[in-house]
Amino acid sequence: MKKTIHSSLLTGLAIVSIGLPLTGGGFALKANAEQATVSMSNGAYSSPIQAPVIKPSWSFPVIPIDRNQVPDQAVAVAENGKVFAVDSNHRLVALEGTSGRKLWQYGNQLTPVLIHSNDTIYGMTQSGSIYAVRESGKKAWTTSLGFTKADHIYRIDSTVYITQSEQTAAVDAASGKLKWKISEDKDSYHGLNQLMETDGVLIRNYNVQGSLTFEQINAYDAKTGKKLWESFRTSFPLTIKNGVVYSVVNTFMMDDDPVNRKITIAQYNLKTGESKGERQYRWTDPENKDGIFRSGGIHGSAFLDGKDLYVFQGKALASYDFWNYKPDSKPARKWSQNGYEQLVPLWSIHEGRMFYQDFSTGGLIAMKLASGQFIHYDYGDNPTIQADVFGKGVYVGQSDGVFHGYDLMTLKPVFTVNIGSRSFGPTLKSGGMIFIQSGNRLHAVKLPASLK
Q1: pLDDT tier at 132 (50, 70, 90 boundaries)?
Q2: Domains along the chain?
Q3: Coiled coil located at which positions (predicted)?
Q4: Beta-bridge mates of residue 394
């Protein structure tokens, strides 16, 4: 899973004196410039990025990026050396990745919500229908749903799921036949962006408003859409194994001990939602001097990577063997996060690095699990708007419209592209090319050999 990310101030102002000779006076009047009430420098300075400036191989007009309207919109997807994009005329186009040559186009009045799966592109029309087009350009089917503001499409096995906030629809991937469509209460439910299917049970997460708003998971029969059970204050599952769902419980305002901390993981029967017990992972924080209880993110969240459960414990990161749980067991490994409490975990490990977003700057940061060393990937000369990691490369779009490619392992800048737009979407990659979504253009860049 890739996911999805400085500001500097101020320089001191010198006081200037100017001598003005006056005729017939025999003296000069000295005038002092007004002194600033507050003047400071943060000691930082901007260094130019030393990397070759290259030009895109080609660019193509697409629907403008608008993160305010559709935060996760997919203007384009890249697979099998091709790019499939919604162009500026709201049509789906297929482009050859290395040359940008248009292979075919399809439809009109399409929206920037699409996926590629099993050699098929699934997308939405402005009128609320879902369509399926083969990679060859041949239309497979279209099905009306009435989802004019659809936010996500997923394909799981033989089913395509479409979500629109509190609504969900299931469509047969081969025929386009509507299996079912459901809606939760629109006044209290707001759909989030995670969905999974296991053993005939579909699980989806929402924010649900009560006296307070918390995440909730609902389980549905994947064949009929019938709700099987729900669990308030419960996060999207860490995993499901042997018919048991494992999810972190949100205990905010229920267990706010600022010193004796813990993460609680609930266990539910997948089919019925019946409780199968719970686990607790405990740690101790220093006495809280400011009286503020910090919860979530780096101050009490967890994710599972294989058999390793990583628990973010504020000043420390701890890992446990998830499948050999013992109450009050000690961590298998532990790393210091002291001084980095402003980080937000991205719940991703790549090349032996745990990734974070810096809450204060928006930049990308990683910690080497082998040594505990923190690495900053936001040493650019302007704030980071978008950062993506593929293989051995880190790709960063800045607020000044400049895009940089870095070597993941050495941090050295490899290339720079002047894009000219301050708006960036997720970077795409297929083969030896990356595709930069920026403003109303899609730019293709051939990767240097070191990043392929």
Answers
A1: very high
A2: 58-351 (2.40.128.630)
A3: none
A4: 389, 406
Query: Six-digit token pair at 133?
Result: 């087009």
Q: Could you report the per-residue pLDDT of 314-339, keeping only the tens digit for each?
A: 999 999 999 999 998 899 999 999 99
Model pLDDT, residue 228: 98
Q: Is there a contact between 256 and 295 (Cβ–Cβ < 8 Å)?
A: yes
pLDDT at 295: 87
Residue located via tokens 């000043």: 315
Give the model's pLDDT for residue 67: 66
